[in-house]
Design the sequence.
């Protein structure tokens, strides 16, 4: 424990280290200046430069080192983003305002999984419920911005090769004219299962007696195989009037998830986004934007690669269980920006419709039976919002707004017989229905004050709400004991759930100059009707058609508090110091237990030598022990850890080459959020990747 305490103390001191001397690299200095002058203290920005220098497999891995951000790992890829301890539908993950919802009830395919690095320009993270543009930003917003088309013609190609045959390659071609712009791109990702620090593949984490272990032929098979295609076109029709069309298709095949009981046969995603912008349509109106989008995810998962699917008298197909899921989202947003007095108002209306259907097929009672796991749920959500920003003086700006949301949810394939026979015994005395509607307001008030040159204070108060999602309301999966799962867990949604409300306060302080920026913040969230996972019991006890062991969802009162500090500092001799530290603590106030899956104290400290054409960087990432766990859900404690990463790069006129090793000393460790409790959790933790080497080459002309 002492070594982790020392690291945390060193990091806390170094993140506050003032800048001295001169720095040489204009790119890093520009980023420092932008973060110091343009980025509010409750936001973080990850540039595409930072992404390209890393061996990240997906957006989750790319953002996990930002203060306050962690991930849930279920396998080599498709990591779910956690922001200040909040995850799933408690945060929004969007790309240019487009909402993609995963099809898998186990979140094999979280929203961030469906966007490729080569499509994006930057990733913006808003911490807390301070963005009213989109429904559901209860705990924050991860806003992915797509790549802009540059004037002229150009081609860019990037290829990464790493340990375990990792391949991450992309090529884009673009042309930007006076009135017409176009960009087309393709990306490919592939890898075999990586090894953890103990020298074992992460597919080899089960004991030899486990029916969930991978078959011998699949232990070292493809970990994932993903192709992504996209197109963006923009046309100017008149001065100030333009339309943009974005199309994308992603085909992910053979994606392994060792932390779950099944793997994905495929995950196919389609996206269409059409936006028309009117600049200065009338006096006092700066801009009006109309956006219409449609997304679809088709997902199939099964246990064909596991020993649980070996044929026997009960298993007569090539799988013991399989889930076929599909979800579509259709959305429309109309927004406008107007000047009102000395301030500016942003307002709009939005609507989105989501359909989600998932059918589980399992060997039960000597026959295969279908269950409406997500019973063809229709969600309609309407919202309107307005936020006003006004400078009260040269040093003080206030910003505030309100949002109203109405949502209706209808489980079209949840019959009254199944509702009464399967759901009601777990929630006796409650009134359950196959449709629900919700109405909730959200408001916030923010203050930005610059009392002196280079100092900015941020204060925010917010009250935001989000509706229960279809899984929390209606998931239904009855599981029975068998030779492969002698003690399974059934999953039962709670149709009587209320919307979650987050009443939050934030304080932030940022100190910056042209050589450094130090940003610190603290927050406190009071969560009423917070939706959490709970064990539930059938009052009739076990018997034919019923099970005593089950999990469902309940509203509880909770609190989450914590803070972050980060810095970028320019030192003499072309050196840069980079550091961050973050802490989050959560408590279920109904039972006094810690909230589940809350990350421990964590951080990083790095030193970078950077001149115009060359850099080398060493970073230490670490986390403290997490002993605040939810014993009611049998959550395990996690030991502290620390790993060292090293990377270097050469930037030429048209070429760039990067190389590095993550986890240089091959440390064996788990992140606390690697233990996923969902409908198909296996109860086995997925360790982090051991020593991992990579090299990236990029070319642009």
Sequence:
């Amino acid at each position: 424990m002492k070594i982790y305490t020392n690291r945390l103390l060193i990091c806390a001191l170094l993140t506050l280290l003032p800048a001295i001397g001169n720095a040489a690299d204009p790119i890093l200095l520009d980023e420092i200046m932008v973060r110091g002058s343009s980025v509010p203290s409750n936001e973080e920005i990850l540039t595409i430069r930072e992404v390209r220098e890393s061996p990240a497999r997906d957006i989750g891995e790319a953002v996990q080192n930002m203060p306050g951000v962690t991930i849930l790992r279920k396998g080599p890829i498709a990591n779910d983003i956690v922001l200040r301890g909040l995850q799933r539908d408690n945060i929004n993950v969007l790309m240019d305002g487009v909402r993609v919802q995963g099809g898998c009830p186990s979140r094999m395919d979280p929203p961030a999984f469906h966007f490729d690095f080569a499509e994006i320009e930057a990733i913006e993270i808003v911490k807390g419920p301070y963005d009213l543009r989109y429904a559901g930003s209860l705990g924050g917003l991860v806003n992915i911005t797509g790549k802009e088309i540059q004037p002229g013609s150009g081609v860019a190609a990037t290829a990464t090769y790493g340990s375990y045959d990792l391949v991450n390659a992309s090529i884009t071609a673009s042309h930007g004219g006076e009135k017409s712009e176009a960009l087309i791109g393709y990306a490919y990702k592939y890898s075999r299962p990586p090894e953890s620090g103990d020298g074992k593949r992460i597919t080899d984490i089960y004991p030899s007696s486990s029916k969930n272990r991978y078959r011998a032929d699949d232990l070292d098979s493809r970990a994932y195989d993903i192709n992504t295609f996209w197109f963006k076109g923009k046309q100017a029709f008149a001065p100030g009037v333009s339309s943009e069309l974005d199309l994308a298709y992603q085909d992910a095949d053979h994606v392994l998830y060792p932390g779950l009981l099944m793997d994905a046969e495929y995950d196919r995603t389609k996206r269409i986004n059409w936006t028309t912008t009117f600049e200065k349509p009338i006096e006092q109106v700066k801009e009006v934007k109309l956006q219409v989008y449609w997304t679809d995810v088709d997902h199939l998962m099964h246990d064909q690669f596991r020993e649980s699917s070996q044929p026997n008298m009960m298993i007569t197909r090539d799988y013991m269980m399989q889930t076929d899921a599909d979800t579509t989202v259709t959305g429309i947003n109309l927004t406008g920006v107007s000047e009102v007095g000395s301030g500016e108002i942003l307002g709009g209306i939005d609507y989105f419709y989501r359909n989600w259907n998932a059918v589980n097929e399992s060997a039960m009672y000597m026959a295969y039976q279908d269950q409406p796991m997500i019973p063809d749920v229709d969600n309609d959500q309407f919202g309107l919002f307005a936020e006003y920003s006004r400078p009260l003086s040269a040093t003080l700006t206030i910003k505030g707004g309100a949002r109203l949301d109405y949502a209706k949810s209808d489980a079209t394939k949840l019959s009254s017989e199944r509702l009464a026979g399967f759901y009601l015994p777990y929630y006796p005395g409650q009134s359950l229905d196959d449709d629900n509607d919700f109405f909730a307001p959200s408001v916030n008030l923010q203050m930005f004050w610059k009392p002196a040159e280079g100092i900015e204070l941020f204060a925010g108060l917010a009250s935001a709400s989000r509706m229960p999602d279809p899984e929390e309301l209606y998931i239904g999966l009855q599981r029975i004991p068998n030779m492969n799962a002698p003690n399974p867990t059934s999953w039962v949604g709670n149709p009587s759930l209320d919307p979650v409300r987050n009443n939050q306060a934030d304080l932030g302080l940022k100190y910056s100059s042209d050589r450094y920026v130090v940003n610190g913040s603290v927050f406190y969230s009071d969560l009423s009707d917070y939706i959490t996972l709970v064990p539930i019991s059938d009052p009739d006890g076990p018997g034919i058609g019923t099970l005593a062991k089950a999990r469902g969802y309940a509203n509880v009162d909770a609190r989450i508090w914590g803070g972050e500090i980060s810095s970028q500092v320019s030192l003499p001799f072309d050196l840069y110091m980079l550091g961050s530290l973050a802490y989050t603590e959560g408590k279920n106030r109904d039972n006094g237990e810690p909230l589940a899956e809350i990350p421990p104290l964590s951080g990083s400290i790095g030193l970078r030598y950077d001149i115009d054409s060359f850099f080398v960087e060493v970073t230490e990432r670490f986390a403290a022990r997490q002993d605040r766990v939810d014993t009611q859900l049998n959550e395990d404690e996690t030991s502290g850890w620390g790993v060292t990463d090293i990377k270097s790069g050469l930037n030429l006129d048209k070429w760039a080459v990067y190389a590095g090793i993550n986890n240089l000393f091959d440390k064996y460790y788990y992140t606390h959020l690697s233990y996923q409790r969902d409908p198909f959790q296996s109860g086995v933790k997925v360790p982090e990747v051991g020593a991992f080497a990579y090299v990236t080459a990029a070319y642009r002309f």
Q: What stands out?
A: The CA atoms of residues 2 and 151 lie 55 Å apart. The mean pLDDT is 87.
